[in-house]
Amino acid sequence: MRLAVAWLLASKTCLAVQTGSFLELQSLWTKPAWSQQDGGTVCAPVGLADLLRLQALVGEVAQLLRLAKARWLLSHGSLLGAWLHHGPVPWDEEADILLFAEDFQRLLAVLGAEDWLAQSRRVSTPGSSFQIYEGTPVGALRYDVHEHRDQVGLWLATAVTFRLHSGARDDPVQLDAFLAKANGSHAWTDSAVLPLPLLLPPRRLRFFDWLLPAPQAPRRVLELWYGPKFAARRKCALRGRSSSCLHRLWRPATP
């Protein structure tokens, strides 16, 4: 209880956005305004309001992880953004982080969701399935825990997806905290197997106004996740809707 109260008090200050930060975000939002992909696909930049909400969400989750004493690393699109843009990818309203098993359990503990799997429901998709648990909102955050497996039951991914409590449950502004399973030499993530020396010890990269923990070798990790041409990669979101399998097939029970 004292931990939860301390986090709620600290989170009030974490949401404050200073004038200098606003100006920097405005610059990030307007430059570049468009990004052209081979074949003519255009990525629209995230709106400034959503960019500010994403910053608030990252701050809230970072504070929660700090109080849980859970270590984490920037990952996936957020690592790509930090490496190339010193912030989020301008057209991506999602953030991504990675936690090893012990720290993932600490996160579940502070959320009171250690037994989430027993309370989850199963959703089948073509060629795979996932279990999902709708968590009780905690402070300024709402969250879901979900685990994905292929058609023969092999593990694909486990993650906690956070959104601001003030937004809708299917709000596209979200943060995915992915589980990484390690065996002493490698870490298995949702989309790549990574040698541990590429991840640890962590280094710091700029993301918004912060220097956040990131993999030791960002470029090599990004190559394993996205291929050698990761700098040219474009993953355009559809504004106002989610293109993910999870959100196409799962309709929440509550608004």
Task: Record keyword descriptors for this entry.
255 residues, alpha+beta, 9-stranded mixed sheet, two-stranded antiparallel ribbon, 8 helices, 33% helix, disordered N terminus
Task: Describe this entry's structure for a reader.
- Residues 1-16 form the signal peptide.
- It is a single chain.
- This protein has 255 residues and is α+β, with helices and mostly antiparallel strands.
- The chain has a domain at 72-249.
- It is 33% helix and 27% strand.
- The chain contains eight helices and 13 strands.
- The chain has helices at residues 2-14, 19-30, 48-67, 76-85, 101-111, 196-199, 218-226, 245-249, and strands at 35-36, 42-43, 73-74, 94-100, 121-125, 128-134, 141-150, 155-164, 174-182, 186-188, 193-195, 203-207, 210-214.
- Strands 3, 4, 5, 6, 7, 8, 9, 10 and 11 form a nine-stranded mixed β-sheet that branches. Strands 1-2 form a two-stranded antiparallel ribbon.
- α1 runs antiparallel to α3 (48-67) and α4 crosses α7.
- The model is unreliable at 1-41 and 238-255 (pLDDT under 50).
